[in-house]
Write a structure and sequence with these properties.
The protein has a domain of 212 residues: MetI-like fold (Orthogonal Bundle), CATH 1.10.3720.10. Helices cover 68% and strands 0% of the residues.
């Protein structure tokens, strides 16, 4: 503990970080709440008028967001992506972590390979996925198609027909499949890292006792591994839901800022995408209201996850 006579030194060392947090974190949050409750606030209107413009305090911005035509679409896409990707990515990460923990040869090398996507720019990864699923040329006239893309080439190699994943004329669910596939793949490294760290800290005596009793592997997994990893599983699930509701960059990486395939622009928009849509119009009041609505949704879902985890997590 720092001596009370020398606490000023601790505050002095912390001062730069505190100042940065106040300027770039605390104040933006306070200002977001303030703008959200200023009815129809627009920065251009506030600046370009000769006289000082005042905005009434109310909830008109929230009403406008909730009545916005694309709000239900954005909410549906956000919820759909989160509900599908978080459980699947967590389950896959758990299985891969258990497999990595069970092998000795090339373990460090494989851990590095699985971790690489975590340190790679998400937009760049999205562009790679777009190239993998892309169809160059006229999809309806095979002679004019120079390539069907890596994924379709694999499908055709096994005798299947190429699928129009992300090009003009592609369907909503084809686009959604590509997006879900990308999000799950991009979410795996962090979850594998957390779960693998938890596995390596588990007391080996539990497994030795199960081995002596000739316990089947599936029962060891369900009765020992999962309960002992439940704190880490709860952590990656909660953070996964928070990240899922903020999904945006993956869609931009694959489909660009149109948030959908050509001819179906905006079909994959999310709540964060909707916030970015209104920013160029300087409608900061609407953007702030949408951000607070998203915060409320994430807060409620997180509280539900935490209440559920209290009954399922074994510390």
């Amino acid at each position: 503990m720092v001596d009370s006579k020398h606490q000023w030194k601790a505050w002095l060392y912390l001062a730069p970080a505190i100042v940065l947090l106040l300027v770039f974190t605390v104040w933006p949050i306070i200002n977001t709440v303030r703008l959200a409750f200023l009815n129809n606030y627009n920065s251009l209107t506030a600046v370009n008028q000769e006289e000082v413009v005042t905005f009434a305090v109310g909830i008109e911005n929230f009403k406008t967001v909730l009545r916005y035509d694309g709000f239900l679409t954005a909410l549906k896409n956000t919820a759909l992506l989160t509900v599908i990707t978080v459980p699947l990515s967590t389950l896959l990460a758990l299985l891969i972590a258990v497999a990595l923990n069970s092998i000795k040869p090339l373990q460090k090398f494989l851990q590095t390979i699985f971790f690489l996507p975590y340190v790679t720019n998400s937009i760049a990864i999205g562009m790679v996925f777009a190239a993998m699923f892309n169809v160059v040329g006229n999809f309806k006239i095979p002679r004019l198609v120079s390539t069907y893309g890596l994924v379709n080439n694999i499908i055709m190699f096994f005798g299947g027909d190429p699928i129009n994943w992300i090009n003009a004329g592609s369907g909503y669910w084809a686009n959604m499949f590509v997006l879900i596939f990308y999000i799950i793949w991009n979410a795996l490294p962090f979850k594998i890292l957390v779960l693998l760290g938890g596995l390596q800290s588990v007391n080996k005596q539990y497994y030795e006792a199960a081995k002596v009793d000739s316990t089947p592997r599936w029962r060891v997994f369900t009765k020992i591994t999962v309960p002992l990893l439940s704190p880490m599983i709860a952590y990656v699930v909660i953070t996964g839901f928070i990240g899922g509701f903020k999904e945006y960059s993956s869609i931009v990486g694959i489909f660009g800022n149109t948030m959908g395939a050509p001819g179906n622009e905006g079909a994959l928009n999310t709540i964060v995408g909707m916030i970015y849509d209104v920013l160029p119009k300087q409608d900061y009041g609407l953007a702030s209201a949408a951000a607070l609505i998203l915060f409320a949704i994430i807060f409620v879902v997180t509280m539900i996850n935490m209440q559920v985890s209290k009954k399922r997590v074994h510390y």
